[in-house]
């Protein structure tokens, strides 16, 4: 074997090792983001009682809604901000800073002696999580080989449900909420390791060097970009509103069906949520290959609409069947996230990719945070958690209509390099 061939093989092996390490870091940081996001939900009744004392149901609902909403607002703000930061300072630095951010403030959450400090830490934890989910998908979309990119993106999309499962597991085995939040030390360690492992995206470096005029344009400049931003934001946003309204309040809804302590049932409900989402994300690529992108999204929204009605309107007492219903609902949550996570980053050129992805991923969270906040206010007036959550889950019907009304475009001439849009549309790749 010639020296040249040996060098090529060594380069390929080195590249494979690097991609594997990058995949592991992105997967773990996203999974831990899922853990951090839902950990407060499973511990919420205990946290409120510890820091606020015994409260009337109305006050408890208001406080619970407030802290969940603040986390989501932090997430949305982080998604916007870290997208802009990533497009300016690079994918590597932005990703590692975001991981460290949510890790540090998660640990601090467990140490906070006052309610005000805890609320601030939850906002900043959300700020970091929002950045990780935007920048990790952006980085992978730029460095991963085309032939396996969709598969890898689909697998990464199940990391968040793995984190949801982990949050339920932590609650199941760790009774102290303060000790549970020490899980934030793990992402801090990952950020330190990433400093020595992760390399900057070649595409971002090339874009920075070229400073092409087209890459300086605002994401709103192109009519095609505006259209893709609108469609992507509506699809992702409507799914997010329903998703967060449900899993932010699911453990509390379960508790409302069971007299006395329901620690294990709350934990198991979130574990079912995580397992269903994991399976849905993992199989999302195969679903798209079988049914196509538009039909896949229609199916996801339709099933989520039906299962929300079944779960929250037909269950007035607790039974083990509820765990099955939660898992089915989460299955299609996960599938939708896998499809959208692969689709959105590839719609935009390098100069605005992270910013536009952050916009699509997070504009819906501004409405989501408001939705979660007002569920607590509406619980009493609407006759319970089930009715309140179901009202907000009707947003799945809105998402279904959005996907249904988007018209398919004719394919561009053969040989032109494009990325497919959700409705058969396309954008030119950089």
Structural account:
The structure is a single chain. 80% of the residues lie in helices and 1% in strands. It is built from 16 helices and 2 strands. The chain has helices at 3-52, 57-89, 91-111, 115-143, 146-157, 159-173, 177-180, 185-197, 202-210, 223-257, 263-291, 293-313, 321-343, 353-381, 385-393, 395-405; strands spanning 418-420, 426-428. A hairpin with a 5-residue loop joins strand 1 and strand 2 (426-428). Helix 1 packs across helix 10 (223-257), helix 11 crosses helix 13 and helix 12 packs antiparallel against helix 13 (321-343). The relative contact order is 0.14.
Q: How would you briefly describe this protein structure?
A:
With 430 residues, the chain is mostly helical. Helices cover 80% and strands 1% of the residues.
